[in-house]
């Protein structure tokens, strides 16, 4: 006779902090559900960027996109690092996470208005919903983890104060909106800097690395969507050039994926300064990948003669985010390399910015990234052979 035991989830469990060396720590279904809802927000931001760029509203497009994507990224990042340290998977935690997901959907609904009218009211309300749930979680952590009570309390107080600032920003005159955003964004990113100095939270390095890899796949999905649209447009318009453009776009996206996951064991540094630099620096990687998708969509519009930008400008809408991606990836993962590996990515980023001056800039950029992947592979295997010898 066999007996089986079934784990019954508790409705409430004290948040004592999870072990940073916990074995087999992977993303939970709740975290994957949270990411799935953020797909909507990323898609809204990328789609709005595509529209503004295609209409030749370049300054407005870049400013609005970086602003909106900051809200998306910051909300996702705060949940991710907190969950890595304090995910209890009790019923109360699940409910507060679902509240944050609802806030993410409200935030996503406000993205188009933020782009067209610089109206951040809906985005702010969604952000408020998410941050209030975050405050509840930090207060739970303060109550359940006495060793990190000062850290958790500082987080809760900092989030509350800055959130009040975001609400007050809605009452400011139009001309004050952008300066106030910069001040409040800086205050937001300084909260972890201050709080973690009082005691480092017990986040799990392998878990954090996996969560960042999963979000990288989400933003790569926006570029994949642009390629699919290019193929569909080529079929509908009977334009064979769009097939070549789609093929080049696929090579670009495949290369971006390959370069990021070439060394999947890359973990965030253990030091406070290193982990903050690694975690914050991914803003550029995520924003750049999603912007590549928008740029590819602009290139399709330009080939269909429905965009109000030149071919060179359309080329830059892809080349600039690719260059930013290469530099950010180099700074976060690869700057410790020596010899050719040290300069390879910065040189490739500079060459990427030259491609819009050449005929067929997107295919040329695809060729450049293909060569970069090949050289990276050769260097890696050569280094492995040397170490074996």
From TrEMBL:
One Pfam family hit: LtrA
Sequence intervals crossing the membrane: 26-45, 65-85, 92-111, 123-140, 152-170, 176-194, 214-235, 241-261, 282-301, 313-332, 339-358, 364-383
Keywords for the protein's UniProt record, in alphabetical order: Membrane, Transmembrane, Transmembrane helix
Domain of life the protein comes from: Bacteria
Keyword Transmembrane: yes
Keyword Membrane in annotation: yes
Name of this protein: Low temperature requirement protein LtrA
